[in-house]
């Protein structure tokens, strides 16, 4: 799994995503995952990966972005060895973000979505970011919405966009902890089942490895959408 660290600085959030599913019900035949009655098929997931690989190779900026993140220690993919696991985690994360928005009063206004887009550098940067995290460009609006949901939630919980004092830092960390609990509740509340070939669902830890669970150091204030530090 990827453990994430949130920081609110220079008007942007920095976090790394993790997501997956658990439960005892058997997975439906041909499904990579199910979310309630919705099925993400292995064939559709395979198409997502094929499209991503083709588009990623054609976008040098996306490759440079991923390399820069990795060099700085930012892990922006769930499993660098498995594009399918990475894509599946992101797709499930969009469902969780939708639940957070609907259930916890974090539906972003258009102006809040536009703010996040500007903070990330605009549509072109967002396209490369979507490819860098392991999804084809057609998912950039979904990614932007997920990021805006997290940003809106944190703001409404009292996070300070640009912490300048120890009190600001404390307030932001408290907001992040509350947001993390809300994301955990949202993940738990969704009926998500994962095909064992892609791992297991753990509501607190996210998508666990297919074999042995690996622990990684770090605080996990918010397990939500990806917002790498682009600075």
UniProtKB/TrEMBL annotation:
It comes from the Bacteria. Keywords: Signal. Residues 1-20 form the signal peptide. This is Uncharacterized protein. It comes from Actinomadura craniellae.
